[in-house]
Amino acid sequence: MPELPEVETIRRQLAPIAEGRAIEAAEVNDDRWVLPHTVDEFENLLAGRRILKLGRRGKYFVLALDGGSALVMHLRMTGNLLFLPDDAEPPSAHLRGQLWLSGDQGRAAGSLAFVDPRRFGTAEVIATQEALNEYLDARLGPEPFDASFDGPSLHQHTRGRKSPVKAVLLDQRVVAGVGNIYADEALYRAGIAPHKRAARLTRAQCELLAETIRDALAAGIDAKGASIDDFRDAYGVKGSFQDQFLVHRREGLDCPGCGAAVVKTRVAGRGTYFCRACQKN
Asked: For labeling, which of 42, 47, 101, 243 is most exposed (least CB within 10 Å)?
């Protein structure tokens, strides 16, 4: 599933392409993509709107539109958001919808194409800024690079939690944007076992874990994301963070810290990779 670094990679590529352009037309190929809207409603809400800013919250794309509304998109498990020049052939399979962008001075017309093999991705138009804030606040906690996310805030979220620490990191209301890959990588960097009961984390461990979460995410952004299965950037190119994994997807391979074999288990319902020797705490 694309996580914060993958979504941020695409956002950085598409922002200079899309910001300031008008959506000449929206075309929906799969009505499931735009629920709870109808196809006609969704297409009409976007036609003629101008994209003021292409932002991100957690794993969501947030396209601020003129008139005060916003288009919120989530890639879910297998989605991709691609830029297609006007003369490019659209994907022959799994195309869920397109936003046709106007040409302007120095930028040729083209489209943003949402491609999703498993059809879990979503697109929804939120009418006002107030409604957008409520929508995101109900689903997401702080951004990991914001000052509001730190060791004390993470420690507070672990109090009384019987669940494993990895389950807490996967809770988007604790920290936005962290998923399976970056939880494994952050816990390894912090030397914390993924199955450790969250309530047993010390303040010092939470301080370190908040730092390693940011470190793992920053490394993912620098590598333009991880392409294990379906993820591609806005131009259809794979990321390279999978080549830098320390433990994730490295079952049976040597731990880079101690040389012991990386093991795979299941925590919070997710395949989880760690080193028993280095992650004892």
From this structure: 243
Three-class DSSP category at 111: strand
270 is catalytic: yes
Is residue 2 among the annotated active site residues? Answer: yes
Asked whether residue 92 carries a pLDDT value surpassing 80, the answer given is no
Look up the CATH number of domain 151-274: 1.10.8.50
What's the token pair of residue 170?
Answer: 């996967």
Structurally, at CATH architecture level, domain 4-137 sits in Alpha-Beta Barrel (3.20)
Q: Where in the chain is the domain with CATH 1.10.8.50?
A: 151-274
d(CA 147, CA 150): 7
Beta strands in the chain (DSSP E): 23-28, 51-57, 60-65, 70-74, 80-85, 95-101, 110-115, 122-126, 263-267, 270-274
| pLDDT tens digits, one per residue of 1-30 | 799 999 999 999 999 999 999 999 999 999
Of 76, 161, 270, 276, the catalytic one is 270
CB neighbours (10 Å) of residue 212?
Answer: 19
Catalytic residue (one of 59, 189, 232, 250): 59
DSSP structure class, residue 107: B
pTM of the model: 0.95
Residue 249 has which token pair?
């997807």
CATH 3.20.190.10 positions along the chain are 4-137
In terms of Cβ atoms closer than 10 Å to its own Cβ (0-12, 13-18, 19+), residue 51 is: buried
